[in-house]
Amino acid sequence: MDKKDYDISNLAISEADTIKEKSPWKTIVIYMILGFLWILFSDRFVDIFADSHETYKLMQSYKGVFYVVVTAVILFYLIKYDYSKIMKLTNDVSEKNEELVSFSEELIAMDEDLQQKIESLNTAMKSINEQKQFTDDIFQNSNTCIVTWGLDGEVLDINNHFTELMGYDRQDIIGKKWYEILLPEEQKYKYYELTSKLESDRKVQNYENKALAKDGRIFDMLWNNAMIYNPQDDLTIVVSFGIDLTMQKQNERRIYELAYNDKLTGFKNLIAFENDINSKINKKTSFTLYYLDMDNFKHLNEIHGHKCGDMFLKDYASRLLTIFDRTNVYRWCGDEFVIIEEDTNDINITKRIDEIALLTKNIWKYKNVEYYPSVSIGITKFPEDAENLEGLKKNMDMALYKAKSSGKSLAVAYHSDFQKDIEKKLDLENTITQALINESFRLVFQPIYSIKTGKIISIEALIRCKSLNINIGEMINIAEESGQILQIDRWVVKKAFEIMKNELDKYDILLSINLSAKSIASPDLIDYLSNITKEYNINPIKIEFELTEHSLIFDIDWSKEVIGKLKHLGFGIALDDFGTRYSSLNYLSTIPFDSLKIDKSYIDKIVDTDKSRVIVEQIIDLSHNLGLTTVAEGIEENEQLDILKKLDCDYGQGYLLDKPLELEDLIIKIN
Fold first, then answer.
1. Residue 649: exposed, middle, or buried by beta-carbon count in 10 A (0-12, 13-18, 19+)?
2. PAC domain: which residues (predicted)?
């Protein structure tokens, strides 16, 4: 209560007391006392001074008048005095009443203001409660793990998502050190690392760690952490918001494996190889590259199928892991592997080559398949041979090519002279291209004779070129590698058909033309031969195409289909160089050949080697039983010819009988 309130209260008490004091009895008492005193003393006075009865009566009358007048005056002043007091009190009361009215109005206004403030406070409290509920709902229903904790690691609170993800109940973790429960042993240091950063920066974003769930699972978590002051408890706490990255990390690992790992072997792939090599180059780390390529692997694939080939590659990958760490082995492509070792010592390199050769040569068996693998290896070093990735790749290519071209099953280290060999090869490819453009090729013809009658039965068209400074066999190999062989085949076919029409059609003679593997694989071969046959009006029965086993096995089913279509057009089919590479009797029984040419490597040995003679005899007998004619290639000695007559070989070809002839000489020979 303020001072004004106190004065009004005192005024009310004081005025009440005054009213009590100014009661009418006070005036009456005074009047009675004065009356009694007047009667008492006035009568004595009259007795003294009245000397007669008349005087006495007169004085009594004067005494009564005087009494009335005096008492009237006294009453007047007493009443006037009381009236002034009453008026003053009335005025005071009126003033105080006005003050009370004003105060009452203030009280009413204060009450209204208080009510408004109470309503505002209630509204604010409701809003605060709603906001708290909203915050609690966010906290509890968030799909993010939320943990509040002190800098000592003690957990203060967790939300529902945390318990759902990690499996811990509130009593399992609140009040305990989170790092003792959640962090795997090898990541305990993360707590000290995190708190150090928080004390320094007050927040740590995108912080990753492993988290151990109650059931033993380990989650990959990403946390955003911030220090917040809590004024209620006068404490600084840490709020951590965590996202489960486990599935994302697994997907990233799968994507990484798909992008950087070979699915078949599990080794890293070409992309990973280039990344790792560049990293080593940037660090100036010396290393050696071993570039492995399986010899004749495509024959395994083509004869027994890609599934069989894949099974071997998986087995070979396991073999490599017996001597090399997985992180150092890469599958380059197909049957090629690259190995990196941070060792450039020549003695150690030689040991490694021997180890690779030893693990490779073991026979591989799968169901009824037996495969005797061998491997060619190209080797290059950093930084001795090259100082960048492209240089190293080029060097190991050249070294591997040298190993392959030198006889296979070899290991060859890069030498700067290999560049000259590559340049020479490129020059030869360019020369072949120019020869095709300039029509520099020509055909010669080697007769094939009947061994019994000595008569020319057929001729084989052979390509020659004066502008080439290498033998024709090497040219064919280069053309097969470069892909130019397809153009050469088309040129030979067209030229041979032209000569058949213009020069040889009148003779009863068969013209044999070689087709490469590239031609057999070409999807437009049949259309090309059909069209050119019509163009030159050639009788297909006078044309025979010679196919090697090598040209068939790239895709045996496709080869059968192509040969079937060639036969349907009317062409004859000869199996050339039989006995080399992957000879298979299955070909003879399933592919409609007309003749079989026995390779020169057998004919060379039939005079001196009984085994070779027996093999040739068996080939001839088998061919006859299958309805095939036989042609012996490379006859150079009379003794060979005599043995072939005895073995009942049908036809022969070789320098003893005739060398390849120019067209003019051939026509003379035929005539």
1. buried
2. 205-257
